[in-house]
């Protein structure tokens, strides 16, 4: 699955380059980077012994942003309906920058023609507006949310201050934490010389999978990626540290409980004494059994 994330990002990048091309060799090429992944949903199990087909197209453009919808198709020989063969669906958002100034650059417009194209365009437009609204409202909390946070913090303080009185069916977030680190190598760079976003998602996915595995005590089953945000670029030679923790659990269905795992990547440059938070990734898993909640 981690390798599939790399392939999806590579295909989305190829599609974005094709969309922005004007077939003029004298035009300065745009710098196209993965800004976010809106959602990746596994619709049915993917078999390792049947070929996969990945298809994608631009479904929406803003002034400098592009949304690309990708489908991974796996159809058994006896199944002819392509719509029922979509195993995984994903939406990638790319942004265009001027390769010299680094500022936002305008991209080719998109003209939907069919009813389906118009429907997809309107859906993507609504998601874009929602993302902008979330950025504005991210730090605003309603009264109900504040009360819920205070209740969660109160339960956590009992664990820290009075562990003998704490709920035995609960666990602190920090106790679910896993971490790994690596030096970014030249073979992991994209055509712009920066570390390939698909590689970062691959490594984050494997860490999230491991975190869910250790937490639940059984092999987890991947369900979906909720959101991926690339906040800053990662360069060759950067010291990349990925940390993860279980963020949320749900036990409405004891046979198939849900676990949300968040992975945050920090890029550290010891020689200049700096550390930046880089892409933030959210993964959701389904397991057959949950030991802690």
TrEMBL record:
Keyword annotations: Hydrolase, Repeat, Transit peptide
Molecular function as annotated in GO: fatty acyl-CoA hydrolase activity
Entry-linked InterPro entries: HOTDOG_ACOT, HotDog_dom_sf
Alphabetized Gene3D superfamilies for the sequence: Hotdog Thioesterase
Coiled coil region boundaries: none
Domain HotDog ACOT-type: 1-100, 174-293
Domain of life: Eukaryota
GO BP, one annotated term: acyl-CoA metabolic process
Family that this chain belongs to: Belongs to the acyl coenzyme A hydrolase family.
PANTHER family in UniProt: ACYL-COA THIOESTERASE (PTHR12655), ACYL-COENZYME A THIOESTERASE 9, MITOCHONDRIAL (PTHR12655:SF0)
Record's protein name: HotDog ACOT-type domain-containing protein
